[in-house]
């Protein structure tokens, strides 16, 4: 590993922070923290932490010695001064004399020592930094060091690589106990340049930010050099019987078998989002004959356990053309995983006097021989984190097995970490929304109603995929909603394009739960004289387009087996035809019946089908120019034209979007048509 330190960049940051009145030591601390955070083989997603001891002025204007430590759960790559809370060092050092310090007390004492009472909570590893005397302390979970210490013979490996340059700290869970032990080991050998925390990570320290950082790079490099010496071949592959089913067939089945019914609301499911990864290294790992041993021994560093659980779910090879068999095996494996997790919890909760509450027993990482790995989470972000950590674990375990035999911490130690209140607190911040865990696809998504609908579903917690003809325009619209919104090209007049677009959504999220079939366009013509070609074109888009989208969605929903929701943009023309609008209204009327047909035939599978009848919405169909022309022709203002309904209110794309969200949430409603037109008795359904 090479040092990424650039004196020019470091001084540039010092200059920028000086303008905010922040001194060069803290600025350099932030600079090297970002360097460490930018290297995924050192830390991932909030792992690791750094500190600096310095003088500061407290709120009363008194100069005080403090330690600045990274905030809990913060990402080192994006750290700034607001995420480095300062605490009074003398108060923290006093704790050193205690025999023990309960977690709840530690959390309160850390907050009590803050210079700024409004600052974010500091890292759970704060005391490790406070008890060491060095000005700069850096801590990472470097993969190479983990491969060296996640071993049955980790002492031998450490002595061989580091000699007397590093203190070796046996595994103790993070917190007060580890901080006391680490400081004690340092004091016995005050010449060491850092500490190896067995089965956890590495600490380096120094008098300057650069010294501490470059010691980290050097010590990790020594571990990396050891990992390329005397390697055994890993892993011997188990035989793969024949062609493996593609991801798009496997993911919805997997998503279904790991979903659980919501105990409170009939028809509701708790579904995960899936993030799939594969590579030659991942395949080498998941195809190994001894996968069950090395993949289930435990986490590579304790910090991962809240994101990955203590072990992954391992499935059988999904053979091409045999989905029923794969699903049966997957169901068996998933329910065995849940049983295992429940018994693990019960076994260790006894030690806590039965006081703890079990988190959901679903897996967070799934390994599929022949295919790759899946990270699972309630949101695409959580799934991504689980997949990143699983990929990191695979690299670490592969290297550990290449030089020895991978050995994690014990099951009890993993439990203590998983249910450690400061760790659970990191997860508790995430708020559940009504559609969290659901994947919503919107067609015609680059239009006014499409964008408003995608935005409304995202705000309700769903993951959204925007489909439209023009990929660039759709991508641009998606960016206006959220970086997590996914854009994909889809021509609903082509069955192949629809199928391909849905496959892409399954690739990205693992499945589909809600479809808003919204793509459409208007054609006009007096019905007795209109060219048949015009009518056919309109049917192709305004009827067959909906049918193709619904068919593609139902295929995935049935594979998942957790129900679903089909929503259609029908239009007032379906029930209240306007003169010259036959070519538009006729296929829309057929689509209204299509909604009922889906409701009838798939209700038994938990798939609902509903429609929204909207009228006079400013959009691609009803353009500003058209509104101007129509209102002038009628001799009314544009405003009066747009609000010419019973309520006297203009209908906006956001109103239509809210109707779709309401239908998605109404679990006992199917074959429904919701009218969003401000009131028009002639178009009322009954
Ligand atoms: Zn750590």
Biggest beta sheet attributes: 7 strands, mixed
Whole-angstrom Rg: 30 Å
Ions and ligands: zinc ion
What low-confidence regions span 5 or more consecutive residues with pLDDT below 50?
none
- Helicity range: 40-55%
Alpha plus pi helix count: 25
Strand content: 5-15%
* N- and C-termini, Cα separation: 72 Å
- State the total count of DSSP E strands: 20
Mean pLDDT: 94
Strand order of the largest sheet: 3-2-1-4-7-6-5
Secondary-structure content class:
alpha/beta
* Overall shape: globular
Summarize the structure in short.
The chain is an alpha/beta fold and 686 residues long.
3D architecture notes:
There is one protein chain. With about 675 residues, this protein is an alpha/beta fold. The protein is built from 25 helices and 20 strands. Strands 3-2-1-4-7-6-5 form a 7-stranded mixed sheet, sandwiched between helices. Helix 6 (about 145-150) packs across helix 9, helix 6 packs across helix 15 and helix 18 (about 450-460) packs across helix 25. The N and C termini lie far apart (about 70 Å). The model has no long low-confidence stretch (mean pLDDT about 95). Zinc ion binds near residues 139, 174, 200 and 201.
Q: Which key terms come to mind for this protein?
A:
686 residues, alpha/beta, seven-stranded mixed sheet, seven-stranded parallel sheet, 20 strands, 45% helix, binds zinc ion
